[in-house]
Every structure is written in C-alpha cells, then in structure tokens.
Amino acid sequence: MKPGSTSAACAALLRRDLTLIWRRRGDALNPILFALIVVALFPLALGPEPENLRRIAAGVVFVALLLSGLLALDTLFRGDYEDGSLEQLVLSPHPLALLLACKIAVHWLTTALPLLIVAPLLAEMLNLPHAVFPVLLAALALATPLLSLIGAVCVALTVGMRRSGMLLALLVLPLYVPVLIFGAGACNAAQAGFPFLAPLLWLGAGLVLALVLAPLACAAALKISLS
Amino acid sequence: MNALTLWFHKIGSPPTFYRIAGAWAPWLFAIALALGAVALYGGLFVAPRDYQQGDAYRIIFVHVPCAWMGLFAYIFLAVNAFIALVWRIKLSEILAMASAPVGAAFTFITLVSGSLWGKPMWGTYWTWDARLTSELVLLFLYLGVIGLHHAIEDRRQAARAASFLALIGIVNVPIVHFSVNWWNTLHQGSTVRLMGESHITGSMVWPLLVMALATHVWFFASVLARTRVGLLELEGGKDWAREVALADAPRDTVAAHV
Predict the structure, then answer these.
(1) Stated pTM of the model
(2) Total number of domains in chain B
(3) CATH assignment of the domain containing B175
(4) Nearest-CA residue of chain B relative to A171?
(5) What are the tens digits of pLDDT across the range B91-117?
(6) For residue A171, which phi and psi values (nearest 5 degrees)?
(7) CA–CA distance from B39 to each of A187, B111, B112, B211 (Å)?
(8) Who among B144, B148, B178 is closest to A174 (CB)?
(9) Would B7 be classed as within a structural domain?
C-alpha cells in the first residue's frame, strides 16, 4: 500500500477507529445490556406465559436490536465532531463517501455484530422456537447493516446539534419501517410455516442498494451540516 | 438574457416574490373558502345518502381531498427541496419549508377524519390497515422534516438539511407503501375497502372534486403566506425587509400569519 493512497487512508481510518473503540471497550457492552434489559421488560409487562412470549418473540428481538442500534448511532460521529477530526475527513483529498463507508463498517462491527451474537440468547429468553433461529439470524445479519447505513445518513444530518437524541429517533424510525417489516415478517412467516425467502431477498436487495447509495448520501448530508 | 430567464430571476428575488405573494394570498384564501363552502353544501345537503353507510360517508368530502393534498404537498416539498439543493435557490428553500407544516396538517386531518369515520363503519378508531399505516409514516416523515428544520440555528443550513431529509423521505414513501401492503396482506386480506361496494354517483363526485380544488387553492395560499414570513425572517437585515417593516408593520405581519 503506497502511503498517501486512498487505500492507505482507509486502512489508517479503520485502524484508528478500531483502536479508539478498543481503548474504551467497556462502552461496547452497553448496547448489549440495553437490548437485554428491553427484552427482559416484555415478560414483566405481558406475563410469563411461554405461549404468549413465543408469539411475539421474533418481533421483540427485532425491535430491541433496532432501538439499541438507534441509541448507538449517536456515537458514530460525535467524538470525531467534537475533536475536529470529522472536518479533517471532509477536507481530505480522498473520496469522503469511501471514508465514511469505513467508519460505518467499524461502527457496525462494534455495535451491531455483538448484538447479532447475543440475539439467540434474547430469542431463547422469549421461547422462540429453535427452528426459527436461523431465519432470525439471517434476517438480522441482513437488516442490521441496512439499519446502520440508513441511520448514518440521518445522523450525518444532525451532527453538531447539542441534544439530537429525540430528533434523531424522529428522523430515523420512519425510514426503518420497511426494514422492520421485512425482517420481522420473515421470522413470523417462518414461525407460521410460510415461505420466508422473499422478505429476506428484499432485505438483501435493500442492503445492496444502501451499500452503494448510503455512503454517498451520508457524505452529502455531512457536507450540509458542516457547511 | 432572454425574457423567460429574466422573469424567472425576477420572481425568484425575495422582495418581488414577497410583493406578489402578498397580492395573491388573500385572494387565494377567499377563493379557497368560497369553493370549500360550495363543496361542503354540495356534500352535506345536495349529495344523496349512501344506501349502505347512511350519512357517515359524507366525511369523505373532507377526508379524500385532504389525503390527496397530503401526498401532493410532499411532492411539492420534494421538488422544491431538489431545486434548493441543486441550484441553491433561496426561494425554493423557503417554499419547501413553508409547505411542510401545511402538508403535515392535511395528513393529520386525513388521519383524524378517517378514524372518526372508522368508528361507526369498522367499529374501531384505528386499524393497522396498509393505507392507514403508510399515511401515519408519511406524517412522521413530515414531522421529521419540520423538527430538523427547527433544530438547526442557521436558517439556510436548516433548510438545506431538512430538504435533504425530504428527498430521502420521498425515496422511502413508495418503499413504505409497498412494504406495508405486503405486510398487511401476509396476515389477512384487507376486508374493508374505502369506497365499499358503492359506485360513486355524479352528485357525490362534484362536491369531492370542488373540495379537492379548494384544498389545492388553500394549500398555495397558505404556502404563499408562510413564505412571506420566511422571507422576512431570512432577509431581516436587508433594506427591503426594513422598508416593509417600517411601512405598515402591524397590518402586514398579522396578515402574513394567517
């Protein structure tokens, strides 16, 4: 890798972001704890009957992961904005969309992937039938990067605002609706014994589209909010 | 510069647009009110009772035009947002942001009137029907645009960020509509259709169309009035705005807030 080339810049960014997260690795547990607690609230509210829980299990796991991802979104640009390195990224000669794609990838690896790993535990807590587990994991594996990509665009618009939490939820959640419908829909279809491939394929199509377009949109949004 | 470009540049300049909008808005409001009154009379008194739904169906004379306007306003918002982002025309930013609250209001009226109609007809105020759900998501999109516009200090940056969100939203609207349709039909076919079995007759159609016209005119009147306020806010330090403020401040600001 030639120093100063785009690939070197991407590698440096990946290494820097991963190092920063490794130095504060305790924080990486927070999304998992949040999702666990949210899932634990449902049996408390609805009663412990396994039959009831089984029916809503896939949807609850999906919503818990979605909310947990929403809370984690804020950290995507916050630190970089505060110490000014985000502006340096925007000013750098390398394509901003590519650099942002690296940042989003690291963010997904460190916030969504751990959630994906504990998802079977969450599903087990709610007595989801074991036959549905592979579908749930496949749907989450396709849906969580999609959520990170869509969320990154919205979070780029709110960068620099002091209290953006509630506003971010208002911006992001309507855009999450189709992902939730297809993801949870696939699990529910599998649970009911219906074919579940179509919603998964739709999720995959959405993910491919977002992989191409979301970093570009994110770069445009970031340029608007840093102008 | 040819005549068309010249006209375009002229009408796009804030003082000129402020003046033209000030001249048009009251007339448009008056026309909208008159048309609305005619349509309401036609809908409430002239149109016959529905053989199945009785008088309750008459809410469509408000509900359906507002639903159309909710979508129309979003398209207007998105077109202006696109122009604002690509060509950075100040007026388009303000027009886009002025149309968002009006569209949100129409969408809200659609939801409220629909649920009032749903209570006697379906026996419930709310059902997770595909159409209702996508209309609700549309309202959230509007609220997101408005919220983002209010959250950013710098007015032009706020308008550009909210315009960008509106453009993402318009990509999302068909996806939501499609996915919600799919989601609902997975569980059960929708059992109740908005129009029921009844083929709509001529005496029911004309009040509906007149009301649709009235809501369109009202939309433009309201957007013009809001745009005037937006222009004054944005151009507060400029000479023309100061002249307007000094000329007849109380009367003008009151009219502009209608």
Answers:
(1) 0.87
(2) 1
(3) 1.20.120
(4) B144
(5) 999 999 999 999 999 999 999 998 888
(6) -75, -40
(7) 48, 20, 20, 5
(8) B144
(9) no
